[in-house]
Amino acid sequence: MQLLITILFYGALAALLVVLGLGIANLARTDENQPSRSNKLMRLRVFIQAIVIALLVIIGFMAGAIHF
């Protein structure tokens, strides 16, 4: 189970890098849809970051590094 969560974590990190790259590339565009697209990419990036953080916390619990 820990291996599956770890694979999901790295997949989510890769998705985060892709969205971040798309956001940076979108800054160079000058069409009228650029602000709307930038806002959507920002919201998607924040959503994926939340998933990555949640997966990292789950990995910490499973590894025994986080105790309450």
Automatic annotation (TrEMBL):
<feature type="domain" description="HIG1">
    <location>
        <begin position="1"/>
        <end position="68"/>
    </location>
</feature>
<protein>
    <recommendedName>
        <fullName>HIG1 domain-containing protein</fullName>
    </recommendedName>
</protein>
<dbReference type="Pfam" id="PF04588">
    <property type="entry name" value="HIG_1_N"/>
</dbReference>
<keyword id="KW-0812">Transmembrane</keyword>
<dbReference type="InterPro" id="IPR007667">
    <property type="entry name" value="Hypoxia_induced_domain"/>
</dbReference>
<keyword id="KW-0472">Membrane</keyword>
<feature type="transmembrane region" description="Helical">
    <location>
        <begin position="46"/>
        <end position="66"/>
    </location>
</feature>
<keyword id="KW-1133">Transmembrane helix</keyword>
